[in-house]
Amino acid sequence: MRVSAEGLVLGVALDALLGDPKKWHPVAGFGRVASVAERYLYGDTRWRGVVYVGVLVVGAGALGVGIERVARGRVAHGLATAGVTWAVLGGTSLGREGLVMARFLERGDLEAARERLPHLCARDPRGLDAGGLTRAVVESVAENTSDASIAPLFWGAVGGVPGLLMYRAVNTLDAMVGYRNSRYERFGWAAARLDDAVNWVPARVTGGLVALCSGRGAWRVLLRDGGKHPSPNAGRCEAAFAGALGVRLGGVNEYGGRVEKRPEMGDGRAPEVRDIRRAVRLSAAVTFAAAAVIWSLR
């Protein structure tokens, strides 16, 4: 295992310039492979879910090892790392989705905003007004700054190309099967728990970087409110963003008929539409700050 700081930083630049590929996205390809594997391995038990996750995550790691063995020289390894980093990062696409939602809400097109929200989160958009949609977007940008950008960079810095691919595999499997419903309550348990584990450190790094980029308000809310969220990781990101933006996040959310009342984080007003653009800019700044840290440690 080798780590190329130059490759990771170049991958961040490529993601900022290009975003996700329109066709033949490698993560989408992995998702198709995972869907086929689910048909063969699914069973309503935890151990089957463990096998499913193990096969796919180890397979992703093996692919990463193979890429590093082929890319032997420093330049080749750096370029391979950059390409894989670009493939697994999603920060630019996250920001673009946030801006699409901002435009819909700025012109008062709530139906278009409700139709688009599932691109960002699993929250039921049907009963959401403009305020509810705005809060959902800000919270999603905050939480996914870690999942889309900081966590893959962290694991790339720790584990090179295998670390990048294994992280994205875990995160993708959680998005596919990590749900508490009749089909995935047991089968998706391993994916959900492993995703919590691999995001534990990156979520806290994300909160720290948000505070570093924005000031003491984010630190204060992060330390005070970050543990209130039912997720062991999302709360750190959302609390830091709440403090940085001077808004109040949390409240009642509905997911496919299941209602959750979450504690509020932050001391400010309810988020407004203009805060979506602020959140997107902050998310980008945090990603570039992470790249700067990686570069400084090379």
TrEMBL record:
HAMAP family: CobD_CbiB. The keyword Cell membrane applies. It is a multi-pass membrane protein. Converts cobyric acid to cobinamide by the addition of aminopropanol on the F carboxylic group. One of its GO terms (cellular component) is plasma membrane. This is Cobalamin biosynthesis protein CobD. The keyword Ligase applies. PANTHER family: COBALAMIN BIOSYNTHESIS PROTEIN CBIB (PTHR34308). Belongs to the CobD/CbiB family. GO terms for molecular function: ABC-type vitamin B12 transporter activity; ligase activity; threonine-phosphate decarboxylase activity. It is found in: Cell membrane. Pathway: Cofactor biosynthesis; adenosylcobalamin biosynthesis. GO terms for biological process: cobalamin biosynthetic process. Keywords: Cell membrane, Cobalamin biosynthesis, Ligase, Membrane, Transmembrane, Transmembrane helix. The chain crosses the membrane at residues 49-67, 279-297. It holds the Pfam family CobD_Cbib.
